[in-house]
Structures are given as structure tokens and as C-alpha cells.
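Hi F.,

I've been meaning to write this up properly since the lab meeting, where we talked about keeping a consistent format for the predictions we share between groups. The idea is simple: the sequence comes first, exactly as it goes in, then the C-alpha cells exactly as they come out, then a line or two of notes. No screenshots and no reformatting. I'm using this chain as the first example so we have something concrete to point to.
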Amino acid sequence: MKLDRNDEFESNPAYRRILAELPPDERLRLLGHDFDLQRQLHKKSEYRRVVQALPVEKKLVLLEELRKRAELQRGKRRVPPIPKAPRFGGRSTASGVSYEEEIAAFLAVKMLSGSHASVWEGINGGDITAITMQASEPVDDIVVTLYADDDARAYISAKERSGTIPLTTNSPAFSGTIRAFVRQFLAVSSEGPVKSRFIWAVPSAAGRAATRHLSEVLDTHRMQTTENLSGFVKSLQPAQGKAFKACLAIARDVWQDETGTSPTEEELKRLLGRMYVEVYDFGYGQRFERQAETEIRTHIAADPTQAATIWQNIKLHFREVNRRGLRVTPLSLRASLSADGLVLKSPPDYSNDVARLHDLTTRHLKRLQEHTSLPFGSEPGDKVHIYRGEDLSALSTAAKAGHLLITGEPGSGKSGLIHGLAETLQQDGVPVVLLLAEEVFNSHRDAPANPLKLSHGLDDVLGHWPNGERGILITDALDAIRDTHTQKRLHSLLRDVLEGTSGWNVVASIREFDLKYGRQVRELFPGTGVPGYESIEFAGVAHFHVPRLKEALLDELIGRRTEIHSFIESARRNPKSAGIHRVPFYLRLAAELLRAGVSPERLGDWSSPAILLRRFWDARVKDAPNSAACELALQAICRRMVETRSMAVSMKEMTLSEGAYAAIRDLRSGGILQAPPSLYGMSVGEEELRFTHHLLHDYSIARTSIPSIPQRFCAFVKNEPLLPVFYRQSFLFALEELWDAEDSRAGFWKVALELEGVPDLHSITRILAPVLAARRVESLTDLAPLLKEISSNRGSNAAAVKALEHLASGIQDVDAGTIKAAASTWSIFAQELARMLPLNPSVESPLVHIVARLNPLWQ
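Output, unedited:
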């Protein structure tokens, strides 16, 4: 007799006993040459090793499960009665509960394996988004949600039986299952019957009628969509016809009982078309046990030797899920396994996206590296890192605690701190994704809709991080995005993670001015400031305000590089310096100038921000051997950046002369433009052009694109009314040039008053000049043109009065040291305004604000 090696035989205890009694040669002939006794023994040893590694309580649970199963298979144990305790339904027997747990666990393995694992016809593991046990449904054993669509579900009735299940109307197991399917079919939404399927899960021991005859006839019926049911029944073999008729009879009776009407033939055909029979056998050495461990070994376990342990943990997890009637998602299951100390691979369907984010983080960390040190020379030892340990510790703690905005004045060292934050978090074992806004979210109008080039949404990828870990998404320089459309895309992406299910914290940096006027960004990060690092301007916002460098850190720097001593000490003494020595960006410029050969004594004379930037520009551009070519190249680069609202452009986008290419090489070596990265000793990405710092980008636009002649400045602003909004810092730098152009400040105030008189301009554009004047005032001469205009132009709508109001507002943000240095000037100015009060009452309000700011300085 020729034995048929099918699933039914393989799971039959009698068949396995006969197989064990066969001589080795006969067993090999029967099973084929792929049978390997040593391999089977090795599997058994591996199983014992895994069991030995389980905790005692899990060993006891597993042992009891095996004992009960063995007794049931040998007929020595009766099925216990249904428990009277509160339940969710569908638990017909103790063995049935165990069986449905194993099926749910098996499907969960497929779910974690993603699209690489086939589940049912037309459905893979990636299509499963949730598994619920003991749901409040007519078919309640297992409910599988498909495609993240609540209308698309697989309702599984899972009853384990130790004997054959007859397919008759009198069979409780068969009729009960069909009854539940009909009720479920009637209960689902209008879309449900089309998208859902009803699965009867049985072991091979249920008999050929259930596992073969009914399964085959349902499959055949699905393919015969045009034939009527009576004709279809006549075409069946007797055994198949018997099973199908019993199924039809039960379905008609239940339909009549539930609805009061008989089902139409089309309704019955739709119901039968969604019914399936699936055979599942579990137990040591069974095919589905082996398949589960293989899927785990291939797609889930980081360490393949943990496959058996992970399989056992998943089954035990679903025992608890079944007891409590819970819903399991890929994220929740991965988190549970990780909590048990099991190390998992990246989910197969997400591994490429995870690798992509890893690569971006590595590249962007390298990009930020240059913001962490001061380049005093070309040797490695000449790069000096100022370690801000206290600030970094507070920032790291805050980032782990929740969502956070990092803000501060331009050049305060936000990017350098972010580099340190990312490295600190990684050292602490916290997953980090670092994205540089200006690189990833390119502002070109034709930028791709998916700038990260991910196959899934960002929050979805973060939620499927290896081992189910939750980490921190860091985005540097939100303010670097100047195009409004791109800003909306970036905000939308951050909102997806902030409000998503991944559980990752979001940390983003932005200049304080952009945060002050960026309502959308503030609303994304509700909360409070980090104690010791909060700003009263951002009450209600979760923020970390980056302070200036502490004097003690600068003393340490002087001890390491004595050549910087003159610059720091001069800035400390100079009331006009605005604390320039405590701003990392300006310290970097000072180090660059020292590296270029400027003497320490000469550098000490340049201790104000405007002068230092101007001297740096002169040294690197105007005084360069090919200065004309450098300026023309920078004009072309800045023009293209403004056109595209981008911080980076390609040389291929512009028409450049041969001299421009040489100038670009010099600008890169001079620290104005970024040098291209090198790979294996060769430069890569040479066509990309970007400045080494955002402030240099802003300053270059001011020097190459914005006129410094008062009349042309105003005309430029009127023709490009949005540019001062998007390039505020560039226009501030341009106004600095106007301020320093002459001692009388007549040209500067002419521009300020003309812009105040243009009502169509954005309010930010009109306040820039008075706000700058508030921190640059030294003598009454600086304010004389404004006083003259106020005295001759009365009324609250006069341009001079508007400028005075903005000046009074700007002085509120000026640091106390700068105001003290010009206190006598401000006092005289206030007296002059007071004399005008009788004839010009509109100056009263700004005068009150100015006096209120001066009063604390004399207390």
C-alpha cells in the first residue's frame, strides 16, 4: 500500500508510532532522501536547550500544556466543562483555547514577518495590521484586521477536536461554526461582506470531510461564479455534495431565524464565497511549528538561535491576550518581546527605510561636526572643542522627557549642541534620527513630494524601529527653510510624528526670532521651558533657550589657545561688543582670522559683531587675489539661492565662467563655502554649493544682493516685499551697513522712515530698522534724525511716530549691558521726547516704554 504523505498523516499519532517502528532503511525509503535523523535529533536537542533556558514559571506552564495535550491524544483525559467564570465568548473547551492561542501566535509571526510571509491566498503578513482575541463578535475566537481597514477582516473560528468532525446538520461543531459565520456575515457593514472572509480553522484530526471535502468544494464554488447553486451541487462528487448541502441547509435556517426571510441565491453565493477552511496542526515537530520558527529565524530574530525562545514567548503572550480579550498590533507585540529581553531585527518591510534613516543620521552628524570646534589651524590638534557639559546634560534630560524646541539667537551654538545631544543619546542607547532641514527638505519648487525617500510614512517607520525601541527625532534649523510651501510640508511631517503612534520624542531647533513670529511652530510644541533655560517670551512653549557661553569656559579656552586672549578680553571691556566673545559663531570667525594670519592685537580691535563680520569678509573675499571673481561667483550663488528659497544649490543650475570655478575653490578653502565631503580619498558631491554657516549665508546675501545705497535699498524692498520676511537676518546685516556708512545716520533713518510709510509692507519689514537702532545707539547723534522728524510730523499715524513706537518696542529686547553703555544717551532722548508731549501727545506711549526699560538700571 502506498502511503500518502499529507498533513493529515503527518499529524496522526498512529502514523507517527508506525513510522517510529520502521527499520531505518524502510523509513528512509518512505520519507525520501531529504530525511536526516541527525538533523531531527539536533532539533530535539535544540528544543530541550530552549526549554531549559525558560524561567521556572514558563516551564511549568509549558509542561502542563504538553501533559494535557498528551492525555487528550491518548484518550486518557476528558475535555473539562466550559468554565462558569466571566468570559468574552467562544471558549468551548480548554483545549480549544490553547488551539486558538497557537493559531493567533502563528498569524502573529506572519504579521511580524511582513510581506515576505504568505498567510492565505492573496494575503501576506504585511497585510495584517492587528489580531484580536475574544472579540465582541459572533465569530469571536480570532479577528484579524487587514490593510488597516476595519471593514476588511478575517473572522476565525478555531476549535480543536480530538476526533473526526462529521459534516451534518446535527454536528454541534460544524453547525455552530456555520451559524456563527452567517450571523457575522449579517452583522458586518455593507462593505464588510466584500472585504472580509470567514475561516474555519481545524486540525487535520478533524477528518477528511472537513479538511478536504468542504475546503475543496468552497474553493471550487469561488471559481464557479456564474453557475446557480442547484446546478453546482449536481456537479459535485457525493462526499463533496453531502458536505455542501449540509452547509447550505444550516445557512438557510440561520438566515431565516436571524432576518425572518429566506436568503436569495445571490446572498448565499456571496456568503459561501467568503468562507474558507484552513488546517492548522501544532505540537513538537509539526509543520506549522517548524514554519513559525523558520519565519522567526529568517525575518524576526536578530539572533537566529533565539527563534524557538521567541516562538514560545509569542505563544505565552497570546495566552494572556486570549484571557483578557486584547488587540495585538505589530508595534505592541514587538514591544512585548523586547521587554522580555529578546533582540529583534528591523521589520522586513521597514528594513530599507530604517537603513535609510540610519544613513541620513550618520551623514548629518558628520555635517554638524564642523560646528563643534574652533579651527585655529590646519592640524588636527588646532581644532578646539568647547565642551558645554552643563548645558548638554540639561538638554539631554529634557529631550528624553518629551517634545522640545531648541531656540536661541543666531550663532548661539544650537547646531553644535544638537551634535553633542545626538552623540550623547546614542551613547545612552537611545535611538536617534537626525535630519538637517535645509538638506532633506530642499526648497526647490520641483523638490520631490517624498524628500526622505521612504516607502512608508516617517512615524510608521519610527514605530517599527528594530526591537520596538522608542527614540528621539531631531531636526536642526527649521528656520533654514525659507519657502512657505516647503515649511508647510516640514511642519506636517513633524506633526505626523508628534501626534502619531510611534511614541518618539521630537526635538527641533529654530532661531528665537522665527519662533517668536512662528505661531504654527509654537502650537506644535505646547508646554513649558526647561528650568534654568527658559525664556519668558515663549511661555506656553516646550523649549530650551540656548544661553551664551559661560565666562569660565572662555577662561579655559584662553588657557588652551593664548592667541584668542586679546579678542576675548577686548570684548569683555567693550560695551559695544554685545557679548560677541560668548557667541560660538563669532568665536569661530575670530579663530579663522587668527588662522589666516591676523595678529591677536589687531583682532582685539574688532570686537563688535558688525566689524568682525566685515573684517572676515574683507579677508576672505575683498582682499583675496581674485576678489572680483569671488564676488561675482557669490552674487550668482546668492541670487540662485534667493530664487529657489534654498540653502543649497547646484553648480549645474547656473552658468559659471572658468574664473568662477576657480573662485569657488578659493571660497571653499577660505571657509565661506563648504568643502565637498571626501570618500575613499576623493571628493564627492562637488556640484553642491552651500555656506559653512547660516549666518554666513545671510551675510553673503546682504553683501551681494541687497543695495547699500538708501534710495536703491528702499526701491529693492518695495519690489521684493517678501524677501525681508524670508531673509530677515540678511536685511538686518544690510541695515548694519547703512548704519555704519556715515556718522550722522541720516541715510539709515531716511530708509527707516520711508519703509514705515509703506502700509502694504509686512510689519516685520517695517520694524527691522528701529529694532537694529535700539541696540546700536551710542550717542544722541544716532537718534537726531528721528527726533527732527518727530518734532515736525505730528499725529499717531506719522511715519516718525511709528518708527518711535518700534524703537521703544525694540529696546525691550536689548540686554542690560548694552543699554547701560548708552544710558546717558537714552536719558537725554527721553527728555527730548518729554518736551514734545504738549504739542505731540502721540509720543507718550513709546516714552513710557522707554522710561520703564531704563528705570531698573538705576535701582
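Notes:
Residues 1-11, 32-39, 75-97, 679-683 have pLDDT under 50 and may be disordered.
The CA atoms of residues 633 and 664 lie 7 Å apart.

If this format works for you, I'll send the rest the same way.

G.
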